[in-house]
Amino acid sequence: MNAVRFSVGARTHGGGVEPGNDIVRFRNVGMRYDVGPEVLRDVSFRIAAGSFHFLTGPSGAGKSSLLRLMYLANAPSRGEVHVFGRETVRLPRREIAAVRRRIGVVFQDFRLLERLSARANVALPLRIAGDRGSAADERVIELIRWVGLGEFADVLPAQLSGGQRQRIAIARALITRPDLVLADEPTASVDDRVGMRILHLLEEMHRSGTTIVVATHNRGLISRFNHPQIRIEDGTLVEGGAP
Amino acid sequence: MMLQRALPNPQIDLPLAADATQRFLPRIIAFMTYLAAIALAVIALFSAAGSGWRESLSGALTVEVRPLAADAGEAALERRTEAALAFLRAQPGIARAEPVPAERLTTLLEPWLGRAGGVGDLTLPRLIDVTRGGEPALDATALAARLAEAVPGARLDDHRDWLQRLRGLIAVMEIVVLGVIVLIAAATAVTVVFTTRTGLAIHRDEIELLHLLGADDSYVARQFARQAGVAALLGALAGLALAAATLVALRLVIGPAELAILPAMTPTLGDAAGVVALPLAIVAVSAGTAHVTVLRTLARIL
C-alpha cells in the first residue's frame, strides 16, 4: 500500500509548535452534553508536539468526547483546554476555524460527503483553506495513491468498502499536512490486517513530525507499537498524559 | 435547470440544488419578478402619460365661448367667437389662436351624445385653441379677466388646475406601485430566508463537518448565496419573459381608441436599464439575503 511515497515535508500553514512543546493541554477538564451528566471529570494531561499517543479505554469511557474537545467540536463545561497554546473557550469564532485547519480529524463514522467523489472528499480541506490549482490536485492524487486507492479516486464513497472509506477519510485528514492528527477508532470497522496498514500510515505521518492521537480500544494493535498511552475509564484519566 | 448546469460550479460541497425547497424557489421568484415587472411597466406608463400630457398642454390654453340666453341664434354666438378671436390675436404673448372646427367638436362629443344626429339640435359652445408664444410672457389670469370683460360668455381655461390634479394623482399612483414593488422584494427576501433556513436544517450534519474541517461561516454562506443567486436568476429571467409576453398580449388586445388616450410608449434607455436591472436586483437581494441568513443562523445555532 505504501509503494507511493507521499511527501509530508513542508506544511501549508505557519505557526507550528516547536517539538517538545505542548500542542494539547487539559487542566481539570469536565464536560457534559447539554444538561446531562458529566462524561469527563477532572481530566488533566499534556501532549507534546511531535508525539504519538494512543487514547485507550473501554467503549463509552469518554474517548470520543475527549477528542471532540481537542478538535473544538465542543467546549469544556469546566477546566481549561489549550490547543496550540490557545485556550479554546477564549477563541473568537473566526479563529476557531483557523485552529481547526491545523488539525486533521479521522472520524469513527468517516463522515465523507456522499455526493462527492473520493478525490473531491480528500480535496475538501484544501478547498476550505483556499488552496486550489493543479499543484493541489496533484497532491490529492498523490495522497490517494499513498493510501492505496489510486484506482478509486473518482468513485463515490457508497461504492467503497468500509476499509477503503476509512483510508479516504485518513487521506482527507492528512491532505493539508496538519500539525495535529486526531483519529477516532480508525481501525474499528476494518480487520486487523487493514487496521495495521492504517496505523502504519499514521506512523509514517508521525515520522515527518506530525503529532498523532489515535483513540482505540483495540489493545492487540496498540501492543505492536511502542507509543505512550492515555487511558481513560468512566470519564476519568487513569493512566498517562503527564499532567 | 439547463442554465444551472451550464454555470461554473467552483465551490459547491453541499447538494443544495437537490433540495425540494430549492426546486421551488425559482418558481416563486419567477412569480415575484412577473409582478414587479408589471408594476414597473405601470410606473413607466404613468410617467410617460404624465410627461406627454404636460408637454402637450403646458403651452396651450382653451377659450370657451358659451351660448347666452340673449343670443339671437347661432349668428350671435359666431359673432362673439370672432370677437374673442380678434381679442386674443391682438394680445402679446399669444402665438396662435384658432377656432376648433365644428366637426371636431361633434366628434369629441360623440362618445356621450351618439353619432345619430343628436348634436345637430343643440347649440354647442365654441372653442378656441390658443398657443402661448412670444414676449412678454402671458399672464393667463389677467388675460382671463380682460377676455371675460371684452367678450361676454367667454372663459379662458389654462388647464393648470387639471394638470396639477393629474400630476398629484400620478405621483400617488407611482408611490403606491413603488410600495407594491417594495412588498414584492420583501416577500422574495422572506421566501429566501425560509428556503435558506430549511437548507441549513437539512444539511446540518454536512455543515458541521465543513466547520470541523476548518470552514468558517462565510464559506458555508457563500454556497447558500450562490445557490440562491442561481435560483433567483433562473426565476427572474422566466418572470421577465412572462411579463414581456403579457405586455405584448395587452398591446394586441387593447383597441386603437383606448390607445389614443395614452401617449406613445417608445422604450427609452432608462426602460432598457430597468429591464436589465430588475433580474440583477432580484439576484442581489436573493443572494444577499441567503448570505446574511446563513451567517446569522450559524452564529446562533453552532
Write up this protein.
The complex is a heterodimer of chains A (243) and B (302). Helix content of chain A is 30%, strand content 24%. Chain A is built from seven helices and ten strands. Chain A has helices at residues 63-70, 93-100, 118-128, 134-146, 162-174, 192-207, 219-222; strands at residues 22-32, 38-48, 52-56, 78-83, 86-87, 103-106, 180-184, 211-215, 229-233, 236-239. In chain A, strand 4 and strand 5 (86-87) form a beta hairpin. Chain B is of the alpha+beta class and 302 residues long. Chain B has two domains: 15-55 and 163-301, no CATH class; 67-152, no CATH class. Chain B has a four-stranded antiparallel beta sheet with strand order 2-3-1-4. In chain B, helix 2 packs antiparallel against helix 6 and helix 6 (160-202) packs parallel to helix 10. Chain B starts with a helix and ends with a helix. Chain A binds chain B through residues 71, 73, 93-94, 97-98, 100-101, 103, 105, 111, 113, 115-116, 124-125, 127-129, 172, 176, and chain B through 11, 13, 15, 205-206, 208-217, 219, 299.
Itemize the secondary structure elements and their pairings.
The complex is a heterodimer of chains A (243) and B (302).
Chain A: E1 22-32, E2 38-48, E3 52-56, H1 63-70, E4 78-83, E5 86-87, H2 93-100, E6 103-106, H3 118-128, H4 134-146, H5 162-174, E7 180-184, H6 192-207, E8 211-215, H7 219-222, E9 229-233, E10 236-239
Parallel strand pairs in A: 3-8, 3-9, 6-7, 7-8
Antiparallel strand pairs in A: 1-2, 1-4, 4-5, 9-10
Helix pairs in contact in A: 3-4, 3-5, 4-5, 5-6
Chain B: H1 2-6, H2 20-58, E1 60-65, H3 74-89, E2 94-99, H4 102-113, E3 126-132, H5 140-150, E4 154-157, H6 160-202, H7 204-212, H8 217-253, H9 256-260, H10 269-301
Antiparallel strand pairs in B: 1-3, 1-4, 2-3
